[in-house]
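Kindly draft a polypeptide, keeping tokens residue-aligned:

***
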Amino acid sequence: MTVVAPKLTLERRLLGECELIISLDEVGRGALAGPVAVGAAVMDAAGARRRVPEGLRDSKLVTELRRPEVAARAAAWVQASAVGWASAAEIDEVGIMRALGLAASRAVQAVADQGAVLDGALILLDGNHDYLSKVHPTPLRVRPVVKADRDCASVSAASVIAKVARDTHMTELHGTHPAYQWDRNKGYASTAHRDAIRSVGLSPHHRASWAIADVPTLF
């Protein structure tokens, strides 16, 4: 099946209505262990006239081997980028949707700290639900778009940047918790991961409030 490359059609149109787009996408939402991460990529009118980097796709459509180089090209292409995090403990405390909001808010604040002006900016959020506005301390203009990570190049950039950052984090955690094979499954529900949970129990990085034993194996 041919995978269509993401474009800047929507971004270019929206930049006629706003000064800046901050595109967001999450990774790690369905994992059993580790944080959830939200990538942010900043696009302005000048940036939207630049060619989309070679190989840029939604992170799920880029092989693990190629993701780091694609993420590096994406980060160099956009005006600023960042990754916001919410820990497994925060997910247990406030639930996954509010944790997504926390991670997204932190990502937005991180690009603001790099100089992105939030007044006049539009937040382009992958999905059909605005999980950001209820959490962020100041009002934001948020536009959820279904399949934005597939179709909108700036959101694809946020997606692959966040994916590489989270995968790297989970691989680092593997060093102190090798039984779960996080270097391979990145905290998701593989058979080996679930077998390790049954054998040695949960780590501090697991989302303990989830019904982990009942979660279907993903791969």
